[in-house]
Amino acid sequence: MSSSQMMRASTVTVRVGGVMVGGSAPVVVQSMTNTDTADAAATINQVAQLHKAGSELVRITVNTEEAARAVATIREGLDKRGVNVPLVGDFHFNGHKLLQKYPECAEALDKYRINPGNVGRGANRDEKFASMIELACRYDKAVRIGVNWGSMDQELVVRMMDENAQSSQPLDNDQITREIMVVSALDNARRAEALGLGRDRIILSCKMSGVQDLIGVYRALSSRCDYALHLGLTEAGMGSKGIVSSTAALAVLLQEGIGDTIRISLTPEPGGARTQEVQVAQEILQSMGLRSFTPMVIACPGCGRTSSVFFQQLAQEIQQYLRDQMPLWSGKYPGVEAMNVAVMGCVVNGPGESKHANIGISLPGSGEVPVAPVYEDGEKTVTLKGDHIAQEFQALVAQYVERHYGAKG
């Protein structure tokens, strides 16, 4: 199925600041800071980094009075830098108090994230939840009602577990867990609507840490509502495990048209960049043909014919070069984000792949003539030789972009 044939589930469009989520809007990439929000300077810097990397919404933790007091300062600091990314406040346990006590925080945020399992219990829970929804109505803010399998509403869990045990056809443990999460999300969304929050201000999520669980719960949720949906595998993990698990789950759902905004919850490796989760989210959407963010590099994996690592280094350098240029190119060269660049390591597939790319280079493999033909739109244009092939090819890529995308500006 091509991207043009892929049908999105029909959902209500929600405005989050200046970003539209759901409906006919493209799937939105979001991320979350891991700074102490009370440290306004550090949080401003990280939000700006995430936004520059391509995060269209950024969530920040609001868990203390110090954090709540810092939110307006963070918004002001971002605005001074020209970083207009919407901010989402992540609330647990005491969100009702913080939003009431610090109206400047409530005003500065563009969306509130509420976890029904962490709001309270009984009448106390209803009062706290109502308080946050009423504040969202007062300040005209969007709300994500985010159910998390690690912190579900225990009263609902006990009731539904008991009902299931007495059923003539009880669900198994995984099935009833998913059902509890879906019911929690939908019940709280209806409660929010009853309190005056419009459907066009509500986003739902049911986040789990197992791939099959996540797929199952979102299929059920999507089939039973038209609220905009936030996708994400919670606690996905580190490195390749987190990337593979998140991709496996989200790709299935996105292919089925489910999901309006995504976040890849990667645990950064020591010293690793927080922006990696943004890049992974973009690459999932781009590889599926749902959106284009940056020119893609096609490169062979290497084999016994490519004993030199030169083509690997060139592919890496070109990919980084393209990403580094996108903040400038995105406004200057419309359409460049869909460009394909091929960096191939030998004569077997090199010329063919290079011809299919917008611009490509076929480097010499082991024992091959030390020349590197370059192809543009299927035609061989030049053959590079010598010690400066990398720099020369990068210059050719820049010239190609100028010629083919510059006029469209």
TrEMBL record:
EC number(s) of the enzyme? 1.17.7.3
Write down the chemical reaction(s) this protein catalyses: (2E)-4-hydroxy-3-methylbut-2-enyl diphosphate + oxidized [flavodoxin] + H2O + 2 H(+) = 2-C-methyl-D-erythritol 2,4-cyclic diphosphate + reduced [flavodoxin]
**Protein task:** Converts 2C-methyl-D-erythritol 2,4-cyclodiphosphate (ME-2,4cPP) into 1-hydroxy-2-methyl-2-(E)-butenyl 4-diphosphate.
Q: Supply one GO BP term.
A: isopentenyl diphosphate biosynthetic process, methylerythritol 4-phosphate pathway
Q: Which UniProt keywords apply?
A: 4Fe-4S, Iron, Iron-sulfur, Isoprene biosynthesis, Metal-binding, Oxidoreductase
Name the cofactor(s) required for activity, per the record.
[4Fe-4S] cluster
Where is [4Fe-4S] cluster bound in this sequence? Answer: 300, 303, 346, 353
IspG C-terminal domain residues are 297-398
Q: What is this protein called?
A: 4-hydroxy-3-methylbut-2-en-1-yl diphosphate synthase (flavodoxin)
The UniProt entry, under Pfam families, shows: GcpE (PF04551), GcpE_C (PF26540)
Its domain of life? Bacteria
Which intervals hold domain IspG TIM-barrel? 11-282
Q: What does the Swiss-Prot or TrEMBL cofactor note state? A: Binds 1 [4Fe-4S] cluster.
Q: Does the keyword Oxidoreductase apply?
A: yes
Family indicated by similarity: Belongs to the IspG family.
Q: Which NCBIfam families match?
A: ispG_gcpE, PRK00366.1
UniProt-recorded Gene Ontology molecular function terms: 4 iron, 4 sulfur cluster binding; 4-hydroxy-3-methylbut-2-en-1-yl diphosphate synthase activity (ferredoxin); 4-hydroxy-3-methylbut-2-enyl-diphosphate synthase activity (flavodoxin); iron ion binding
Pathway field of the UniProt record reads: Isoprenoid biosynthesis; isopentenyl diphosphate biosynthesis via DXP pathway; isopentenyl diphosphate from 1-deoxy-D-xylulose 5-phosphate: step 5/6
Recorded hits in HAMAP family, A to Z, give: IspG (MF_00159)
**PANTHER family for the chain:** 4-HYDROXY-3-METHYLBUT-2-EN-1-YL DIPHOSPHATE SYNTHASE, 4-HYDROXY-3-METHYLBUT-2-EN-1-YL DIPHOSPHATE SYNTHASE (FERREDOXIN), CHLOROPLASTIC
